[in-house]
């Protein structure tokens, strides 16, 4: 367990410096471009990530745990969209966000979105201003907590194209699953692969790199 702790922001920065942003996935017909912001900050030597609980008033994914974000406006880059939506949803000023990079694109087939996860770091814990028409609550969790025993699991689902694994992180506030969980898993795998030997951390038990 100790090897999963002490994941500082410097480790995250190093991970992104050591790799290039993944290739941009071509936009498929009928799929809308969207972006989310994985907001990180360090507290007591641990990197924490900001999550939201979606409002029961939104059209899709009501009450689910996610990242702030939304549809890209015409001509808007994913990073711009992620920052704009984070300001609109939780009052996060874009001037305070140090953009570290992007993760791979994730397609939400049910809602027809191609989502770019943008990763940014803050100098300190944010003070959210919640837009309750879209967001019910804002909270955060340490990356070390995501890698604690018993938090991560996978379920095998069957769809029209066959079987597939669905990732879950079971937190005290509820389960993070699906595309959001896949983004968290990708971030943890990136940190694991790029960490120096002294701060090497294992991915969640049972996790398979995306």
User: What does the overall shape look like?
Assistant: globular
Low-confidence stretches: 195-202
| Range of strand content | 25-35%
Span between termini: 23 Å
Compressed to H and E, one letter per element, the order equals: HEEEEHEEEEHEEEH
Derived from helix and strand composition plus strand pairing, the structural class reads alpha+beta
Question: What is the CATH class?
Answer: Alpha Beta
- Treating each run of at least 4 consecutive H or I residues as one helix, how many helices? 4
Radius of gyration: 16 Å
Q: Topology, please?
A:
Layout: H1 9-17, E1 32-43, E2 46-54, E3 65-66, E4 69-71, H2 78-90, E5 98-102, E6 106-108, E7 113-121, E8 135-142, H3 143-146, E9 152-159, E10 162-171, E11 174-177, H4 178-194
Helix pairs in contact: 1-4
Defining traits:
alpha+beta, eight-stranded mixed beta sheet
Report on the structure:
- The chain is an alpha+beta fold.
- The chain has one domain: Nucleoside Triphosphate Pyrophosphohydrolase.
- The chain is 20% helix and 35% strand.
- It has helices at 9-17, 78-90, 143-146, 178-194; strands at residues 32-43, 46-54, 65-66, 69-71, 98-102, 106-108, 113-121, 135-142, 152-159, 162-171, 174-177.
- The strands form two sheets. Strands 1, 2, 3, 4, 5, 6, 7 and 8 form an eight-stranded mixed β-sheet that branches.
- The longest helix is centred in the last third of the chain and has 17 residues, at 178-194.
- The radius of gyration is 16 Å and the shape is globular.
């Amino acid at each position: 367990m100790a090897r999963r702790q002490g994941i500082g922001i410097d480790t995250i920065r190093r991970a992104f410096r050591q790799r290039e942003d993944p290739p941009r996935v071509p936009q498929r017909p009928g799929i809308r471009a969207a972006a989310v912001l994985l907001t990180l900050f360090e507290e007591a030597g641990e990197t924490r990530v900001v999550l939201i609980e979606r409002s029961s008033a939104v059209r899709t994914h009501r009450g689910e745990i996610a990242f702030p974000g939304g549809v890209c406006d015409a001509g808007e880059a994913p990073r711009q969209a992620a920052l704009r939506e984070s300001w609109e949803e939780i009052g996060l000023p874009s001037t305070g966000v140090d953009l570290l990079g992007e993760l791979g694109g994730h397609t939400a087939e049910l809602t027809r979105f191609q989502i770019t996860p943008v990763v940014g770091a803050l100098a300190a814990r944010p003070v959210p201003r919640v837009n309750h028409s879209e967001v019910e609550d804002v909270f955060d969790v340490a990356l070390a907590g995501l890698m604690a025993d018993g938090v991560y699991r996978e379920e095998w689902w069957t769809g029209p194209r066959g079987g597939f694994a669905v990732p879950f992180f079971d937190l005290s506030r509820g389960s993070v699953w699906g595309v959001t969980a896949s983004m968290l898993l990708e971030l943890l795998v990136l940190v694991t692969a790029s960490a120096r030997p002294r701060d090497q951390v294992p991915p969640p038990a049972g996790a398979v790199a995306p």
